[in-house]
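quick q for whoever's on today - can somebody do inverse folding on this one?? i tried earlier but teh output was garbage lol. C-alpha cells:
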C-alpha cells in the first residue's frame, strides 16, 4: 500500500478544455478530464472532482487495508465525497472543504479489528492527510443503516 519516491503522470490537451491524463501504470486506462460549462462540456471530471474522488478513494483503501490487509471482502464499502466550493476574498473559486462518508457493510463492522481501525485509518491515508493541511476534511464512517460509527474533523 505504500507509494514512495516519485511518479510522473502525463497530461495532453486534446481540444478546448479536454485533457487526456496518461498514468505511469501500463494497465491503468487513460482518463479524459474536462471543465464544466461555460468553459468545457463536462466530457470528464474536472480537477475538483478528482480531488474529492482521490480523498475518498484513499480513505476507503486505508480503512479496507487496516481491517482486511490482503483480501478485503467484496462489495463491503461505499463512499460519498462532497466538495464544497467557495469564493475567496478576491472572488476566486477555491475548495473550501471536503466531506467524505464511508458506508461500511457488516463484513467490515463485524471485524475484530474494527474498533481499533476506525480511529486509526485516517492517519495512513496519504491524500487526505496531505490535503487536510490546507483544506478542512470531515470524515464519517457509517453502517448501512446510517448509524455513525466514526466522525472526525
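ok took a stab at it. sequence:
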Amino acid at each position: 500500500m505504500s507509494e514512495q519516491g516519485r511518479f510522473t503522470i502525463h497530461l495532453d490537451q486534446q481540444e478546448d478544455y479536454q485533457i487526456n491524463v496518461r498514468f505511469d501504470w501500463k494497465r491503468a486506462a487513460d482518463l479524459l478530464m474536462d471543465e464544466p460549462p461555460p468553459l468545457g462540456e463536462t466530457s470528464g471530471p474536472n480537477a475538483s472532482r478528482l480531488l474529492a474522488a482521490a480523498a475518498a478513494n484513499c480513505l476507503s483503501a486505508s480503512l479496507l487495508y487496516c481491517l482486511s490487509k490482503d483480501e478485503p471482502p467484496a462489495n463491503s464499502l461505499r463512499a460519498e465525497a462532497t466538495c464544497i466550493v467557495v469564493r475567496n476574498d478576491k472572488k476566486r473559486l477555491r475548495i473550501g472543504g471536503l466531506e467524505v462518508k464511508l458506508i461500511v457493510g457488516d463484513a467490515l463492522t463485524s471485524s475484530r479489528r474494527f474498533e481499533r481501525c476506525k480511529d486509526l485509518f485516517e492517519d495512513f491515508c496519504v491524500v487526505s492527510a496531505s490535503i487536510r493541511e490546507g483544506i478542512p476534511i470531515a470524515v464519517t464512517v457509517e453502517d448501512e443503516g446510517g448509524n455513525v460509527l466514526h466522525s472526525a474533523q
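fwiw Residues 47-152 form a domain with the GMP Synthetase; Chain A, domain 3 fold (CATH 3.30.300.20). also The chain has a mean pLDDT of 94. so keep that in mind when u check it
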